[in-house]
Amino acid sequence: MAGSEAAWQAAQMGVEVVIHEMRPTVGTFAHKTGDLAEMVCSNSFRSDDDEQNAVGQLHWEMRAADGLIMQTADQHRLPAGGALAVDRDPFARTVTQTLKSHPRIRVEYGEISHLPEGGQWIFATGPLTSPALGEAIRAETGAAALAFFDAIAPIVYAESIDMDTAWLQSRYDKGETEDERRAYINCPMTRDDYEAFIDALLAADKTEFHEGETAKYFDGCLPIEVMAERGRETLRHGPMKPVGLTNPHKPDQKPYAVVQLRRDNALGTLYNIVGFQTKMKYGAQTDVFRMIPGLHEARFARLGGIHRNTFLNSPTLLDGQMRLRSRPNIRFAGQVTGVEGYVESAAMGLLAGRMAAAELLGREVPAPPQSTAMGAMVTHITGGADAKTFQPMNVNFGLFPPVEGLKGGRRGRKDRYKAYTDRAKSDWRDWLDAFDG
């Protein structure tokens, strides 16, 4: 995501770009193709609400900056209530074709295993940086790479879901069209169903870590069994919360918990289980997930998995232009910088691409103001965060400077969020005008 967006932005500014892609020559266990911008986890870009949600504001800023990732996501959009979900395979193919057909972009396949001395480089290697390059980065930075484990949710064949038990509905009927309001499949649980499910989840065989490895999970992508270990009611107040939904099969009976599945492709043949990242072994996954009402005979197109992600301690290593302090011809972008999520990763690619191109063109433009979603993210990773406790972070309003004179707490939240996004839009337009001017 980040590398694709960086290449697009730099080329659009008039700079010649070479994309180095190691896949499919050198693969990873999570990727299946050699396409650029391949999605390996969820197919959701999350909320598209640019008035009340920080990630929705980030969408808005990327669209305003002629972002390739958002253009392509809009082109391959799937119904998902108030969220932006995409058809992952055609999305990646379109990004790849668009970049390959750009007159100022060339794609070369093969692994880069060292940090080059000359030229302007952006490393957007993501969470699955190759071992050789990871060693080169560690040797240069003199710091041990931080690591956490990211888990992948399973995908179910739609035809195997029992729709006499499950039903189609977005939470609170959110969405402007009928497709949007019916974007999720909902599987209801009674209290007995839920308690039995939690018991099975806690008892299931899990993937063990290798000796000497330590796991630091990112809280936004916790394995479901780790959430269950934090308390039996945790899931019922998290991804399995039963609010905003009415079961048309039993309208007078409120479910004790609900499992939601989100459409994963344009055909509507695949659905992923929302929030069900897991490190259970494959056999255990099928046994436990088939306990969910409506999924008793479920067939899985992909089971969940777990992989190790690496990221830099960016507050100590990167300057405000996203350059490696010890090697300023090298920038980093994307998840390797300590942002979390497709959109956040692509946004950091957008900034890195623009900043690198501006430098090559003899200009140096300041980072966007912290009052914008992109400015909030880049400020956080390049010095706003505490380096001692630095962890991957999604964009959120907690990273934005407060707007003076607004009421705090939950009651004032709607007005406060609208003030944040109004200010961000104005400041982002001003920054873009100054950058492009």
TrEMBL record:
Signal peptide: none annotated. Its cofactor is FAD. Keywords: Cytoplasm, FAD, Flavoprotein, Methyltransferase, NAD, NADP, Transferase, tRNA processing. GO terms for cellular component: cytosol. PROSITE patterns: GIDA_2 (PS01281). GO terms for molecular function: flavin adenine dinucleotide binding; tRNA (uracil(54)-C5)-methyltransferase activity, 5,10-methylenetetrahydrofolate-dependent. This is Methylenetetrahydrofolate--tRNA-(uracil-5-)-methyltransferase TrmFO. It comes from Salinihabitans flavidus. The lineage of its organism: Bacteria, Pseudomonadati, Pseudomonadota, Alphaproteobacteria, Rhodobacterales.
